[in-house]
Structures are given as structure tokens and as C-alpha cells.
Design brief:
This protein is α+β, with helices and mostly antiparallel strands. The protein is built from 17 helices and eleven strands. A five-stranded antiparallel β-sheet has the order 2-8-9-7-6, sandwiched between helices. Strands 1-3 form a two-stranded antiparallel sheet. The protein binds adenosine monophosphate (AMP) and magnesium ion (MG).
Length: 488
């Protein structure tokens, strides 16, 4: 049997911060996919382990030696309203492993049955959302976006009842940790400052050991988490990604994208794009994500304030200043990301207006967001065909393109070199909504071929391949609005 060499630091050091839990034994587990490259990165030796054994392990049927299964307690603001009692209702941490490079990871099963926090839920997951998370999280990783990863997906052989019955599945998620803003909120709400301090100290020791010697480590933690969240949301906007449910319980303090639910990538640019069926007011629309991140960080600061205050009352004002500074901090990070997407290597005040104007143009002409940046790089190579195909007519955006070109000419890097640098940050292949839906429909019917092909495509987002031309196309214009669901 596979050796995980578990080292369960949260279980051992944080008694009272979780509930022990067990997986429900599935009736007929069958391996759908195992992520061998990720297993290697984690130092898990899968050589000699059969698919049947993998299916048993990653469905929770037979947990490996040293597993200490538990469900995390957390609270959270959901669509702005505080729920004091959430927690892992359909997830089970089986243990932590330390990779060969010394980095520690949580190994968690999602959909393995009810826990103490399930309330009325069944703790299960259907195959569609499991394969969707696998695909999108692996695409994000390939694009260099901080994210949890997917190690395995196993069909359980059982049915899961949603609006209708679906085949059940379990996802194995790998995260730098599952500590969320909502985890801090839970202990702030129910237990007070000593528990928050314990959680903060654990988080610093695990994620940010360099902060342990700061004058006020809890203030330093706030500062670092804000930094990581600014980076993360800038990544999302740059990729055209909409998380869809940025509740505080879905914000990991590690700065990784977590809890893939109704998330999706937009095709044609529209700043108000929302896909989630439950987001009627557009709270988590594409363009609102920076503001929501700011709001979420204010909730994080509130949970930390008593412990920040206990170290030095004067630091309360510093915490407030950190939160107030988020829009400016985000803006700097966002503009540097946009400069890279546009091929600029040096900052220049004039590019702010150019970038703002770009979004107005993309919106006005409903241009495919992903393809546009690739088309600009092609233009630098002397090939205008891709851009022409995206624009309604030859004059569209001509003044903006001229400005962009003039801006580039102030730089010293040669056009071809610049085009290559752009292609390294602008994906050509993202998980397009219509492609995901087609792949999931086939997979639910038992045919994994389309899903496996799509996975291969999104794992290689930057290099154009003739046989994948179709994957770079947006949904047909008459495809109608796309709706996503939380429904695991
Ligand atoms: P999420 O959609 O991940 O933000 O989930 C919000 C809360 O609902 C979390 O506490 C989940 O654990 C819980 N939850 C979602 N689906 C289920 C389910 N099928 N069974 C039990 N709990 C669930
Ligand atoms: Mg969640």
C-alpha cells in the first residue's frame, strides 16, 4: 500500500479547532483519474499501487496508515451575511504531508460523506462538479494562478440525489492549508482572543515563518494575507476568471484559489459578468472581485483586531490603515499584471489611461478576452489575421491599437521578443464554458475521452497547436447565457 508519511500538525497542535470524522464507505469505487505529476511533486510514491487500491484510498474506503481524518470548523460571511456555524460539511482532511522540498500540504477528500458540520447536507458530491473542479483547478495551476490542486477523482458507485440523481464521486484536493478567513471568524465569534491568537500563531508557523519575529506578528499576518489576496485577485482578473462565491469561508489565508463551485471564465468581455445561479445581484461579478476582496480583508482584520490590540494597542490604527490601503495596493499589482499582458516591460503613468481605455473598448465591442491578448502578440509578429477575426471591422479599435503601438515603441525590447513574453503570460487555451459542459455531459454518461482531452489542452495553455484550434474559440455567439451552480 502507498506510503504517505503523514505528519498531522493541525490535528496534533490544534485540538478543539476541528471535529474528528470518518468517510462513508462507497459501494463500488472506481478510479476516474489520478494526477501522477502532482503525486510526484508531493513525494507520494504510487509505483506498484493498482487502480483499485488508488480508488479505495481516494474514495475513503480504505484510508492509508497514519491518516487522522477530521473536519475543520469555520464560520463565514455568505453574500454579506454572517453564518457563525459552517465548517467542512462534505470534506474530510485525511492528513498532512511534507513534500521532498519541505513544503507542507493538506490532503482532503471532498464528497466522502457527512461530518459534524453537515447540517442537512448529505456530505456527498456528484461526478460533474468533481470533474469540473479537477479540470479548472489544474488549468489555473498551469496558468500559474495560486490554487489548490486535484490529486484524484474516484466514482463511488453510489447515486447522489440533487434536483435529480447523479453518479457520486470523491475529489482529492491538495491545499497548502485549509485555513480560511472564516476559520478565524469562527474562533473570534465563539471562543475569543486566546483561540484567535493560537490560530494566528499556527498559521504564521505553517505559512509565514518569517513573520514570527515581527514586532506584532498578528499585524504582520494581516499585511501578508492582504498582499496575497491582492495578487490572487489580480491573477483572476488577468485570466478572465470569476470565482463566483467569494464568501469569507471561501478565502484561504495561503492566497490560493479555493472552493471551486460556480466559477467560470468569461468569453466576450463584460465587466458585470456573473455566471452563478445564486448571485442574482451580481455581488461577485467579474469587475467587483477587487472590492469584495477588500471587504473580505476587512472581515479578516476584525477577527484579528483583539489579538493585534493585545500586543500593542497602537497597532489597531495600523491595521485599519492596512485595510484602507487595499485599493491602492491592488491597483499597483493589477497594473503591473496588465503591463505584462500588453507587452510593456516598464511602468509609465500614461499606460494607466491606455489600460482603462482598453477595457472600455473590449466591453463596447464584446471582444473575446482571452484571444485578444494573443492577437496583439501576433500583430507584433506581423500577422494581423487573428486580431481582424476578433473585431467587427477593420477600423474598430484602430486608435487604441495605434496608442498601444506608440507606447511599445518607447521601449527598448525588440517586437519578437516582446511577443514571446506576452505569449508566456496570456493563455491561449482556457477551460471554455461550452467545452466544459460538453466534456462533463459525456463523462457523466461514462465516456471520459472528451474530458481527458480538455484536461490535456488546459494543462498546456500557452503553446498553440493546430489540432487544438477549436479549443481557442469562444462559445458560438448564439449559445445563449451560461449559468453555473454550486450544486455538489
Ligand atoms: P461552499 O459551497 O463550499 O461555500 O459551502 C458552504 C457550506 O455548505 C460549507 O460549510 C459546506 O461544507 C456546506 N455544504 C455544501 N454542500 C454540502 C453537502 N452536500 N453536504 C453537507 N454540507 C455541504
Ligand atoms: Mg466553501
Amino acid at each position: 500500500m502507498m506510503d504517505f508519511a503523514f505528519d498531522n500538525s493541525f490535528h496534533d497542535a490544534m485540538d478543539g479547532f476541528y471535529a474528528p470524522a470518518e468517510a462513508v464507505r462507497p459501494s463500488a469505487p472506481r478510479l476516474l483519474i489520478f494526477n501522477l505529476a502532482l503525486a510526484e511533486r508531493l513525494g507520494i510514491d504510487a509505483v506498484g499501487t493498482t487502480d483499485e487500491q488508488l480508488a479505495d484510498i481516494f474514495s475513503g474506503r480504505q484510508l492509508p496508515e497514519g491518516a487522522a481524518p477530521l473536519a475543520f470548523a469555520y464560520a463565514g460571511h455568505q453574500f454579506g451575511h454572517f453564518s457563525s456555524q459552517l465548517g467542512d460539511g462534505r470534506a474530510l482532511l485525511i492528513g498532512e504531508i511534507v513534500a521532498p522540498d519541505g513544503v507542507r500540504f493538506d490532503v482532503q477528500l471532498k464528497g466522502s460523506g457527512p461530518t459534524a458540520f453537515s447540517r442537512n447536507g448529505d456530505g456527498k458530491a456528484a461526478i460533474g462538479p468533481v470533474l469540473r473542479e479537477f479540470l479548472v483547478s489544474e488549468a489555473m495551476a498551469a496558468m500559474g494562478v495560486p490554487t489548490t490542486r486535484s490529486l484524484a477523482a474516484v466514482a463511488t458507485g453510489d447515486r447522489v440525489q440533487r434536483e435529480r440523481a447523479h453518479p457520486g464521486a470523491v475529489l482529492t484536493r491538495i491545499a497548502s492549508s485549509h485555513i480560511r478567513v472564516g476559520t478565524f471568524q469562527f474562533f473570534a465569534a465563539h471562543f475569543g482572543a486566546d483561540h484567535v491568537a493560537q490560530l494566528s500563531n499556527y498559521s504564521i508557523g505553517r505559512h509565514f515563518p518569517d513573520l514570527a519575529d515581527a514586532a506584532n506578528p498578528h499585524l504582520a499576518l494581516l499585511d501578508r494575507v492582504i498582499d496575497l489576496q491582492c495578487e490572487l485577485v489580480a491573477h483572476w482578473l488577468g485570466a478572465g476568471f470569476i470565482h463566483g462565491v467569494m464568501n469569507t469561508d471561501n478565502v484561504a489565508i495561503s492566497g490560493e484559489t479555493i472552493d471551486y463551485g460556480p466559477c467560470a471564465f468569461m468569453d466576450r468581455f463584460a465587466v458585470k459578468t456573473v455566471f452563478s445561479s445564486i448571485d442574482a445581484n451580481g455581488r461577485y461579478a467579474y469587475g467587483r472581485q477587487p472590492q469584495i476582496m477588500h471587504w473580505n480583508m476587512a472581515r479578516f482584520a476584525e477577527a484579528l483586531l483583539p489579538v493585534i490590540h493585545a500586543v500593542d494597542p497602537a497597532d489597531v490604527d495600523r491595521a485599519k490603515a492596512l485595510v484602507d490601503g487595499i485599493p491602492e495596493r491592488f491597483r499597483d499589482i493589477w497594473f503591473s499584471r496588465m503591463r505584462a499582458k500588453l507587452g510593456f516591460s516598464q511602468a509609465d503613468e500614461a499606460d494607466v489611461a491606455l489600460i482603462d481605455a482598453l477595457f472600455a473598448e473590449l466591453e463596447l465591442h464584446a471582444i473575446d478576452f482571452t484571444s485578444f491578448f494573443r492577437a496583439l502578440a501576433q500583430l507584433l509578429r506581423g500577422d494581423g489575421a487573428m486580431l481582424a477575426a476578433l473585431l467587427p471591422d477593420a477600423d474598430t479599435m484602430a486608435p487604441w491599437i495605434a496608442d498601444w503601438w506608440a507606447h511599445l515603441e518607447r521601449e527598448t525590447i525588440a517586437p519578437l521578443e516582446r511577443a514571446d513574453a506576452m505569449d508566456e503570460v496570456n493563455p491561449l487555451y482556457i477551460p471554455r464554458n461550452h467545452k466544459i459542459e460538453a466534456a462533463l455531459a459525456a463523462a457523466e454518461g461514462g465516456d471520459m475521452a472528451l474530458w481527458l482531452e480538455l484536461l490535456e489542452v488546459v494543462r498546456n495553455p500557452y503553446i498553440a497547436r493546430a489540432e487544438w484550434a477549436d479549443y481557442a474559440e469562444p462559445a458560438p455567439a448564439d449559445a445563449g447565457p451560461y449559468t453555473t451552480f454550486c450544486g455538489t
